[in-house]
Amino acid sequence: MTGQEILVARHGETEWNRRLRWQGLSDIPLNETGLLQARELGHLLKNENIRAVYSSDLKRARKTAEIVSEILGISDIKTEPRLRERFLGKFEGWNSIDVARYAGIPEENYEVLETDELIIDGLEDVEPWENFRLRIWQAFLDIASESLGEKVLIVGHGGVMRAIYLTINTDYSGFPPFQNCEFIRARKTGSKWASD
Q: Does the predicted TM-score (pTM) go above 0.90?
C-alpha cells in the first residue's frame, strides 16, 4: 500500500437514532437493526485488508467494532475515549424537532441540525464545535501515527465522521448526514489527507 488509508465508520442504529433523539455521550446500546447493520458492515469490509480496529468507548460504537472485528478476524480492539460523540448537555435525549423548536429553527427545517454543527454552538451546555473537532482530529492523527503503513478502521459516531471529513475537506456545506454503519475513506499521500 502506498501512502496511508484509514476507514472511519459510524456505529449501528440505536433506538434513540430511530426516534431522532440526540445521544451525545449518553451510552445507548445498539438495537436489533444496529446489530444487523454491524454484521453487514463487517462483511462489506472483509476484503479491505484492515489490520487494526479503533473504537470510541461508548457502547454503540464498541459493539459495532466488536462485531466487525470478529468478522475480520481481528482479536484486539483499541479503545480511544477521545473518539466519543460530541457532548450535547441537557439536549441529550431530546428529539431533533424539539431541539429545532428550542433553537428557533422552523420545524420543517429540523434536518439542518444533522448537517450543520455550528448551528447548535450557541446552545448552553453543548461542547463547542471547535473543541470537539480538535479533540477528534488529534485522536485521528495519533491513530494515523500509530498505524503507519497499515490500513485501519475507526468506529465512531456521526459527529466524529463529520469532524474528520470537514477537517480534511474544509468545505462546511453540501454533505448529507452520515447514516448508521456508513463509512468514509481518508487517504494520505505525502503530507496531505483526502477523503471520499
A: yes
Q: Could you list the active site residues?
A: 11, 85
Q: Are 98 and 107 in contact (CB under 8 A)?
A: no
Strands 4-10 and 152-156: parallel
- The whole-angstrom separation of Cα 93 and Cα 120 is 15
CA distance 141 to 14: 28
Distance CA(140)–CA(6), nearest Å, equals: 9
C-alpha distances (whole Å) from 42 to each of 114, 149, 150 are 25, 22, 18
The radius of gyration of the chain's CA atoms, rounded to the nearest angstrom, is 16
Q: For the segment 142-195, what is each residue's pLDDT rounded down to a tens digit?
A: 999 999 989 999 999 999 999 999 999 876 655 667 999 999 999 998 889 998
Angle at 176 between CA 89 and CA 22, to 5 degrees: 20
How distant, in Å, are the alpha carbons of 49, 93, 121, 128, 129 from that of 125? 41, 14, 9, 9, 12
DSSP 157-170: -HHHHHHHHHHHH-
Which amino acid does the sequence have at 14?
Answer: T
The Cα 77–Cα 159 span in angstroms is 21
* Position 63, amino acid: K
